[in-house]
Specification:
By secondary structure, the chain is an alpha/beta fold. Helices cover about 35% and strands about 15% of the residues. A seven-stranded mixed beta sheet has the order 1-7-6-5-4-2-3, with helices on both faces. The longest helix is centred in the C-terminal third of the chain and has 23 residues. It is globular. It starts with a helix and ends with a helix. The structure holds pyridoxal-5'-phosphate. Pyridoxal-5'-phosphate (PLP) binds next to α5. The site of pyridoxal-5'-phosphate has 13 residues, from α5.
């Protein structure tokens, strides 16, 4: 059975966290002389809310989840790093990934001195059979499922995620950076029943706020408490909290952009398929297409010369380039330039 105390590092269990001024007193007051701030008011002379309560209230109603189950980080990358630091003992615990997938898991593991075990996806980018997965797992730690997966674009069924979580005593991290582009349900619905599932989402993709650096982790309250205990006290700055609130309060604008991106994706897919140089386009539940080209490196370099930058993934997946969906005009320009290449 999964037990949070069994996977939390001893130094973290014993840690007495730093207590910030804004944590020790957070009510209303007339005069603030507790945090050594500059008293001359501007938008940002005060420290930000260390627990982003106002932002979490909005996320809570948007995602239909209690604020106690929400952690907000300086990008999902911060959440990934904190998960390693809280739950993986260097030289002992391991992290499990299904390549080809997002590169940060491996980098974060290496920074934290955690061995990475690679369990390759099947040829169609589906997860391997359960039995084959667990053959490779011999320790607690973190198991990453990126869904929809970057760079392949496919999404995994919640049933598969459930049965992996049920049989694993470490944490199952479901990275849903692209979930807003998909019509599949989020794994957030699983966290009540599966205390070892952590769902990551981000404001960097569908919400159009990559420059802001805001990621979210949704999990069992005991996991969130530990992340809060070890995070830098003021990890989300005042301006980021404010802009995120503004954007989250106009969900119809975001929804409209997402719908446009999906429509553009379908259009781009059709146009690409009509080109001789394109061998295959993989099904995508995200805001990008993974495309196999007959002469991928040549295409990539020629596009760079035209000032059009896509992602070369040929090192991970033979012949494949990853194309982010742009505006209608940008996509048209891409197609036009591809047509000039023979
Ligand atoms: C883009 C992306 C993220 C986002 O990371 P942030 O730090 O929130 O910008 C996370 N996971 C995957 C798989 C991504 O592709």
């Amino acid at each position: 059975m999964f037990n949070i105390n069994q996977i939390t590092r001893k130094n973290i269990q014993e840690l007495v966290p730093y207590s910030s001024a804004r944590e020790e007193f957070s009510g209303t007051a007339n005069i603030w002389l507790d945090a050594n701030e500059n008293p001359f008011e501007s938008n940002i002379n005060r420290y930000p809310d260390p627990f982003q309560n106002e932002l979490k209230e909005v996320v809570s109603s948007l995602k239909n989840i209690n604020t106690k189950n929400i952690f907000i980080g300086n990008g999902s990358d911060e959440a990934i790093d904190l998960l390693f630091r809280a739950f993986c003992e260097p030289y002992k615990d391991k992290a499990y990934i299904f390549p080809p997938t997002y590169g940060m898991y491996k980098v974060s593991a290496k920074i934290n001195n955690i061995e990475i075990i690679e369990i390759p996806l099947l040829e169609n980018f589906e997860l391997p059979e359960q039995e084959d997965i667990f053959k490779k797992i011999d320790t607690n730690g973190l198991l990453f499922i990126c869904s929809p997966n970057n760079p392949t674009g496919n999404i995994y069924s919640l049933n598969k995620i459930k049965s992996i979580a049920k049989n694993y005593n470490g944490l199952v991290i479901v990275d849903e950076a692209y979930i807003d582009f998909s019509n599949h349900p989020s794994a957030i619905s699983l966290i009540q029943e599966y205390p070892n599932i952590v769902v990551l989402q981000t404001m960097s993709k569908a919400y159009g706020l990559a420059g802001l650096r805001l990621g979210m982790a949704f999990a069992n309250e005991s996991i969130i408490q530990i992340l809060n205990k070890i995070k830098p006290p003021y990890n989300i700055n005042t301006l980021s909290q404010k802009v995120a609130l503004d954007i989250l309060k106009q969900p119809s604008k975001t929804r409209k952009q997402i719908n446009t991106i999906i429509k553009e994706k379908n259009k781009l897919q059709e146009q690409l398929l009509s080109l001789d140089m394109v061998e295959k386009i993989y099904p995508s539940s995200a805001n990008f297409l993974l495309v196999a080209f007959k002469n991928a490196n040549y295409i990539y370099n020629e596009l760079v010369n035209q000032g059009i930058i896509i992602r070369n993934r040929t090192q991970q997946i033979d012949k494949c380039l990853r194309i982010t969906i742009g505006t209608s005009e940008q996509n048209a320009c891409l197609i036009e330039n591809l047509k000039k290449l023979k």
